[in-house]
Design goal:
homodimer; 135 residues; Arc Repressor Mutant, subunit A; Dna Ligase, domain 1; two-stranded antiparallel ribbon; 4 helices; DNA-binding
Chain lengths: 135, 135
DNA sequence: CTAACTGCAAAGTTTTTGCAATTGC
DNA sequence: GCAATTGCAAAAACTTTGCAGTTAG
């Protein structure tokens, strides 16, 4: 679980990507990070975006979010534990407070688990804007 | 949320795939379902496996599981709500009982949520077999 | 009979990677 | 300087799809 500190450089590309992730709230895909980054660095490539996202994830500075109904991963910057809500109508992803009861859970009591690294809670449904009407 | 009953046939292929899913416990990928099914139907194709998994999912007879650290989806048959544990060392996926506190949660109180369809809880860590040693 | 389904192979999507050139430190 | 990083393009990995032939009902 230790955060390996590997030799690395502060490139403009990495800084811009990290900045986009830190804005928060948007849960962008690699593709949208790529487009956003191009506004600042017109020559940045999609490969570089992916490589940096993987690097940042290894450093614990980015998290990957995979919903059940979208094929691409979304990403977010480092932030306190929270759950995610995914609207299957407009595809938006929103942050939710993590239910307090989950924080207190003792998973280690489960006979098949040795150590727990992370919890991921996804709630799926319709957001307020899309309304409760039938899908 | 209604389960659309669309015209369909009971093909050998679909039956075999459903049978594999019902065995439970294994959380197979499309690829491993394909290999397992070939033992019974040596000519079944991967495309047919994917088409049937999508069909069964639409009918509510199969669920897709996407972990954060694996690129392919896993699948399981219809079963009571439960959580999943994913060992990042051996990549195995285990079923966990859903914490009772989650069942009682009133997400609809969240201002941004209109309706909730499903909950997905993923626990990541090391399983008993892989042990608590550093990764 | 006929529409749902299949096998096959080609194509689509998303992510990774090899390589020569660039650039932080 | 030199190794980490980049852009580019090719490849890999996973999933979907078009089509002609097959099959359940």
């Amino acid at each position: 679980m230790e955060q390996k500190v590997k030799k690395s450089r502060n490139t403009k590309q990495r800084a811009v990507i990290l900045e986009i992730l830190r804005k928060g709230g948007s849960h962008p895909t690699a593709e949208s990070i790529y487009h956003e980054a191009r506004k600042t660095l017109p020559n940045i490539s999609l490969g570089t975006v992916y490589r940096n996202l993987n690097f940042l994830r290894e450093q614990g500075l980015a998290h990957e979010i995979r919903t059940n109904s979208e094929s691409s991963s979304r990403f977010e910057g480092k932030c306190p534990p929270h759950a995610h809500f995914h609207c299957t109508k407009c595809q938006s992803v929103l942050d939710l407070p993590l239910p307090p009861c989950l924080k207190e859970l003792e998973w280690n009591g489960e006979s098949d688990i040795a150590t727990v690294n992370s919890l991921d809670l996804h709630v799926t449904g319709a957001c307020r804007e899309c309304g409760p009407a039938a899908s």
